[in-house]
């Protein structure tokens, strides 16, 4: 069973990536966790880049390398020329924008496109690539896409005009005589579109006068040339004739191989204050094997430092702080992303509490399997959020903060991770979990299963341990019927050669019971013990990625069959609920920055309220 749970956890996320579109995924997170590892709240990768003006590459991006990445990650949707005609584009409800056209590219800021590549665009069905691509690779692919609409002739013409019109103040290489006249700064050009550069030249800015006597085409050519000053920008037709292997970047030649690095960082509390005298342990992994463990303590300024740490590009680095009886981890740093000899791994620690009033269940997934004669296997997956600013910990080793009631007659309790006597303790009527819950959205999850007797009919009463925002129930179509006054049917889905019925419920209160009646003789698509994982994975991937998997096709089919009157906005309550559920899952998986997530969720909630208002009228 433990092996099955591992496969379940891995395949859920693999299939989620496959369903969310033209994405890649990485096994970078599939490493052995440090001792006493505490799951941390998934941190949105782009949260620190909420303001585009703070984004710029540390080294000039390489569009030739970006071409290779584009062909693997982006071409299936955006097409070879970036005009939105990729082989998977037809499966999307909205066509991809023509990012390879000058009309679109000249109004794009490189930093904005980098942010999109990092975090994705949920409203356009585009996933983020913060996990599968390094920082430099994301800049490389942005550089390549921007090069699609730049021609050699335009760059050469722009260079000639720059020499006659601009070089007197800005220098022949654009570096000028100081910061104000230096046009080669990454932080400047990465946050300016070609059109913005044209407007500055046309109208002037500050002490810079307007550039007279040049047409819009001439100014655009100069702007294209300026782009080459900060990007290793090669026009599209030249990139097509080169390969990363035949034309290595100058940085690759100049850089000396790293053998040792310094790992450093600061430990801060939730208020941003430095915390002194905190034990910090550094763990280094190569694949699944831990190759190094070192410990130190933060100084009076809250900082820590590890000197002469062996470096290899394929290694993974994690720093762990112990504070208030709980452990807190830095983000995982991949050696391939190193930009110098110092790697910075900040850690945030939190005070502790045993008060669970600010803990809630964002999502509850329930699965049924009838592969064992005379029994129904029930799997429950809880995704928790801690909306407070303290880590929730047990009051004592035998008093868990999280308590899970089990239905009467439950037997053969199994867990995804941990076991009774370690992470879990048995309680009257259920079990408890001793794991601390860090603050944050989707900061903790638990997956467990149990068996109940089943002979053609049974009633299952599931008591909610906390407030549940949304529950999703998946039942294999095998002759067994489900009835519940609280669950709303959401249609069927074929997955792994099996048909599942999906039901949802929202806003279940703590202490309330979700009453489910099952009836009928299992037969046909019941699966078998060895196939249970694939069944559950197929079902949960549908629940987690409705909006990315083409659920709108099912909705259209149901609408045609039932002759449901069209809501003027073209949206239904079901579809909006599905979108909110999918949005929550992407955020909990760390694929959306918090500001984007909150804004998009608010928009969807307002639209849902509007649709409900129309239905009432």
UniProtKB/TrEMBL annotation:
Protein's UniProt keywords contain Membrane: yes
Domain called Cytochrome c: residue spans: 61-149, 153-230
TM stretches of this protein: 531-554
Domain of life: Bacteria
Stored PROSITE patterns: CYTC (PS51007), PROKAR_LIPOPROTEIN (PS51257)
Pfam families (alphabetical): Cytochrome_CBB3
Residues spanning the signal sequence: 1-28
Keywords of the record: Heme, Iron, Membrane, Metal-binding, Signal, Transmembrane, Transmembrane helix
Protein name per the record: Cytochrome c family protein
Naturally occurring in which organism (per UniProt): Anaerolinea thermophila (strain DSM 14523 / JCM 11388 / NBRC 100420 / UNI-1)
Lineage of origin: Bacteria, Bacillati, Chloroflexota, Anaerolineae, Anaerolineales
């Amino acid at each position: 069973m433990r092996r099955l749970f591992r496969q379940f956890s891995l395949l859920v996320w693999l299939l989620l990536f496959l369903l969310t579109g033209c994405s890649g995924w990485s096994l970078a997170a599939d490493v052995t966790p440090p001792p006493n590892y505490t799951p941390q709240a998934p941190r949105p990768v782009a949260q620190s880049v909420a303001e585009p003006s703070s984004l710029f590459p540390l080294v000039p991006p390489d569009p030739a390398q970006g071409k290779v990445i584009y062909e693997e990650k982006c071409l299936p949707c955006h097409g070879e020329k970036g005009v939105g005609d990729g082989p998977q584009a037809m499966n999307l409800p909205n066509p991809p924008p023509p990012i390879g056209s000058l009309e679109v590219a000249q109004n794009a800021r490189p930093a904005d496109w980098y942010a999109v590549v990092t975090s994705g665009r949920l409203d356009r069905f585009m996933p983020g690539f913060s996990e599968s691509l390094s920082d430099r690779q994301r800049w490389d692919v942005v550089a390549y896409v921007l090069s699609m609409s730049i021609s050699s002739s335009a760059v050469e013409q722009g260079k000639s005009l720059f020499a006659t019109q601009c070089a007197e103040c800005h220098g022949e290489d654009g570096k000028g005589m100081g910061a104000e006249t230096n046009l080669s700064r990454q932080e400047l050009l990465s946050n300016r579109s070609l059109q913005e550069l044209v407007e500055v030249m046309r109208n002037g800015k500050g002490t810079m006068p307007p550039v007279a006597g040049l047409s819009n085409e001439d100014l655009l050519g100069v702007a294209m040339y300026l782009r080459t000053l900060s990007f290793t920008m090669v026009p599209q037709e030249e990139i097509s004739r080169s390969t990363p292997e035949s034309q290595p970047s100058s940085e690759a030649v100049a850089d000396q191989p790293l053998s040792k690095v310094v790992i450093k960082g600061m430990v801060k509390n939730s208020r941003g204050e430095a915390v002194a005298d905190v034990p910090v342990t550094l763990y280094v992994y190569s694949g699944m094997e831990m190759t190094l463990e070192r410990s130190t303590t933060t100084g009076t300024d809250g900082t820590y430092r590890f000197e002469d740490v062996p470096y290899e590009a394929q290694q993974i680095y994690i720093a762990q702080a112990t504070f208030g009886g709980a452990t807190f981890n830095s983000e995982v740093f991949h050696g391939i992303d190193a930009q110098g000899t110092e790697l910075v791994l900040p850690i945030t620690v939190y005070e502790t509490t045993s008060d669970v009033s600010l803990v809630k269940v964002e999502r509850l997934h329930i699965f049924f399997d009838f592969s064992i004669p005379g029994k129904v296997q029930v799997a429950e997956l809880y995704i928790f959020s801690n909306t407070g600013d303290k880590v929730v910990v047990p009051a004592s080793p035998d008093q868990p903060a999280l308590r899970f009631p089990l239905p009467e007659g439950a037997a053969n309790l199994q867990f995804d991770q941990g076991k009774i006597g370690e992470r879990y303790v048995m309680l009257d009527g259920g079990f408890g979990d001793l794991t601390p819950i860090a603050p944050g959205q989707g900061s903790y999850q638990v997956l467990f299963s149990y068996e109940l007797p089943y002979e053609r009919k049974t009633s299952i009463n599931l008591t909610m341990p906390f407030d549940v925002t949304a529950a999703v129930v998946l039942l294999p179509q095998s002759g067994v019927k489900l009835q519940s006054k609280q669950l709303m049917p959401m249609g069927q889905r074929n997955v792994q050669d099996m048909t599942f019925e999906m039901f949802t419920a929202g806003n279940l209160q703590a202490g309330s019971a979700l009453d489910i009646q099952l009836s009928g003789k299992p037969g046909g698509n019941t699966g078998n013990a060895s196939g249970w994982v694939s069944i559950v994975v197929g079902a949960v991937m549908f629940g987690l990625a409705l909006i990315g998997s083409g659920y709108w096709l099912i909705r259209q089919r149901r609408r045609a069959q039932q002759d449901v009157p069209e809501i003027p906005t073209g949206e239904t309550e079901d579809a909006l609920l599905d979108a909110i559920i999918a949005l929550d899952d992407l955020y909990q998986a760390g694929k959306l920055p918090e500001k984007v997530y909150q804004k998009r969720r608010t928009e969807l909630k307002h639209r849902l309220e509007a649709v409900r208002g129309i239905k009432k009228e």
